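User: Predict the structure for this protein chain, please.
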Amino acid sequence: QVQLVESGGGLVQAGGSLRLSCAASGTTFSVRTMGWYRQAPGKQRELVATLSRSGSTDYEDSVKGRFTISRDNAKTTVYLQMNSLKTEDTAVYYCSAVGGQIYWGQGTQVTVSS
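Assistant: Here is the predicted structure, written as structure tokens:
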């Protein structure tokens, strides 16, 4: 089992920045990919960014050039640096880890005001 704990959400004005963190614990050796998803009110959960064990990254088109996913050297904490935030980035952001099954964090609210 893998446990994920997110932090770093909050309220920010449009154009501002936030950094989300996701700390993984448990059987982290089984994790192949970590990522961030988000879910806005009334919408489906969507992929934001992923980071594989090998270091390759992938981003949803609307966040390319604004968001950066990274991790620490121990590969147990993944970050999402969000710059130039827009009101449409407002959502609950979820950390995920894939390793035999998909694990989810509890989510952290990001609210971008105009």
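The CA atoms of residues 93 and 108 lie 5 Å apart.
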